[in-house]
Every structure is written in structure tokens, then in C-alpha cells.
């Protein structure tokens, strides 16, 4: 048997492993915080760049078309995805940029996205296509309206100006999707109130030539809509907090090991012997 005792060896191995694991997890949390800080800084830089106009969206590659399974190209003959990759990169480079648009609303295609909150209150996000060129339209998330709790189908009045309009906003991905059960969301075209909106399906349903990005309209409240869009939080405080907990646990393991396995085992007996 080891001269220091099997229990001491096991305690040493467990302490070293515990400290190594907790320090590693703490460093991982610091790395995640650094990544999120970098993303947050990149978003801030994009928002500070000069404002774009509708030509930036009109110049995007056309949306990918869904190919029926029967007409799909065999894998061996599939073309390289360079065009799709370039299109995705071009769209990603525009997200979070400020933009000014001039066009005409298509109010007949307005949709109310249900169960969306603003300032903690439930309601609807109102989205309407804006025709910015004869062959180009963009889906605009115009703002938020409160929900009628007595009758969900009673929609609050939203004014949609006719003729050319000018708006400002931020380029964004398609409206976020919420969880819904299969068949729980009204079908295409059956209701103006929907839980989610798939951009490709909506494009096919309406026939509107929508680009594959949307715009969050900003500015003062108007037309019956609120536009206090939530800011994107970096979330680094959470990761720093977790890192502190992991490093604290590592320090606790080391302290307990030193006290119980070193001080009490070696230092205290010597002091008692001398006394």
C-alpha cells in the first residue's frame, strides 16, 4: 500500500481532477463571454455605419426556389453550393444595418403575428409587404399592437397610408418563429392572425416578390403602432457570473483539500508532538 495511505491518494486525485474540471469550465464561460462581446460589438459597428437604401435589398440574389423531390438533381450531379453560399453571405452582411426605404404598402397582405410581447404586454406584431421596386418587395415588421383579451379576433385599428411612403428601420432576419403544435396555426391565407410566418411559404402564397430579409421599422409611434423594439442583450454578465461560480468552486475544493489532507494530516500532528 502507498505509504501515505490509499485514502490520501484518492483524495488527492479527486481534488486535482475537481480543480482541473472547474477551472476548465470557468475558462469556457469566459470564452463564451468574449465571443458574445465580440458579436455585440460587431452589431454596434453595423448600426453605426451609413444608412442604406432600397437598392441594397434589391441587389440581393433571388430567394432559393424549392425543387420538387421528383425533379431533384441526383447527388452526384448536384452543382456546387457556391451561389447559395454567396447569397447567404450577402444577406448576413446586411443584418442590423440601418436602412431608409421608399415604396408602397400592400395592405391586403398584412398579417398579425400573435403572442408577441412589447414592454411585457402580449399583443401582435403587424407585418406588411412594402413594394420598393416593380419586382422587389420587402416584409416590414411595422410595430406592435395590444391584444383584445375578450375577443382575440378583434384586431385594433392600424392605419396604412396609401401611395408612396418613406420609412426607416433596421434590416433583420425573417420574423422569429414561436413554438406551435401541428395544425395549431391557421393555414395559408385563411386568417390574418397567425402564430408564425414562413417567408418562403408566404412568398408563394401571396405571389409578392419578397426578398429573404425583413425590416424592423423604427421611429416614433404612429399609425396605431408601438415601435419600442427590444435591444439585443449581450448576456455576458451571465457568463461572468457562471465563471465566478466555477472558479469559486475550484478555490473551495483546493482549500478543503489543503485543510483536511495537508494541514490536519501533517501540520497539526507535528504541533501536538512539539507541545
Automatic annotation (TrEMBL):
<feature type="transmembrane region" description="Helical">
    <location>
        <begin position="243"/>
        <end position="263"/>
    </location>
</feature>
<keyword id="KW-1003">Cell membrane</keyword>
<keyword id="KW-1133">Transmembrane helix</keyword>
<dbReference type="GO" id="GO:0005886">
    <property type="term" value="C:plasma membrane"/>
</dbReference>
<dbReference type="InterPro" id="IPR045214">
    <property type="entry name" value="Surf1/Surf4"/>
</dbReference>
<keyword id="KW-0472">Membrane</keyword>
<dbReference type="Pfam" id="PF02104">
    <property type="entry name" value="SURF1"/>
</dbReference>
<dbReference type="InterPro" id="IPR002994">
    <property type="entry name" value="Surf1/Shy1"/>
</dbReference>
<protein>
    <recommendedName>
        <fullName>SURF1-like protein</fullName>
    </recommendedName>
</protein>
<comment type="similarity">
    <text>Belongs to the SURF1 family.</text>
</comment>
<keyword id="KW-0812">Transmembrane</keyword>
Amino acid at each position: 500500500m502507498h505509504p501515505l495511505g490509499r485514502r490520501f491518494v484518492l483524495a488527492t486525485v479527486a481534488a486535482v481532477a475537481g480543480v482541473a474540471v472547474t477551472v476548465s469550465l470557468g475558462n469556457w464561460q469566459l470564452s463564451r463571454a468574449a465571443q458574445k462581446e465580440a458579436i455585440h460589438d460587431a452589431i454596434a459597428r453595423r448600426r453605426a455605419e451609413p444608412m442604406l437604401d432600397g437598392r441594397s435589398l434589391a441587389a440581393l440574389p433571388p430567394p432559393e426556389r424549392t425543387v420538387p423531390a421528383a425533379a431533384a438533381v441526383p447527388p452526384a450531379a448536384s452543382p456546387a453550393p457556391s451561389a447559395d453560399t454567396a447569397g447567404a453571405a450577402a444577406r448576413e452582411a446586411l443584418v442590423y444595418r440601418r436602412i431608409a426605404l421608399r415604396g408602397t404598402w400592400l395592405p391586403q397582405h398584412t398579417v398579425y403575428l400573435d403572442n408577441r410581447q412589447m414592454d411585457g404586454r402580449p399583443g401582435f406584431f403587424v407585418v406588411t409587404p412594402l413594394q420598393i421596386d416593380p419586382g422587389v418587395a420587402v416584409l416590414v415588421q411595422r410595430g406592435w399592437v395590444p391584444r383584445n383579451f375578450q375577443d382575440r379576433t378583434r384586431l385594433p385599428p392600424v392605419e396604412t397610408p396609401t401611395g408612396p411612403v418613406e420609412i426607416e428601420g433596421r434590416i433583420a432576419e425573417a420574423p422569429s418563429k414561436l413554438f406551435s403544435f401541428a395544425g395549431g396555426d391557421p393555414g395559408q391565407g385563411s386568417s390574418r392572425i397567425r402564430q408564425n410566418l414562413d417567408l418562403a411559404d408566404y412568398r408563394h402564397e401571396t405571389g409578392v416578390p419578397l426578398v429573404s430579409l425583413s425590416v424592423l421599422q423604427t421611429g416614433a409611434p404612429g399609425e396605431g403602432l408601438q415601435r419600442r423594439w427590444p435591444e439585443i442583450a449581450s448576456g455576458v454578465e451571465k457568463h461572468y457570473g457562471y465563471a465566478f461560480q466555477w472558479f469559486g468552486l475550484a478555490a473551495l475544493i483546493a482549500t478543503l483539500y489543503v485543510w483536511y489532507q495537508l494541514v490536519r494530516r501533517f501540520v497539526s500532528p507535528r504541533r501536538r508532538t512539539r507541545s
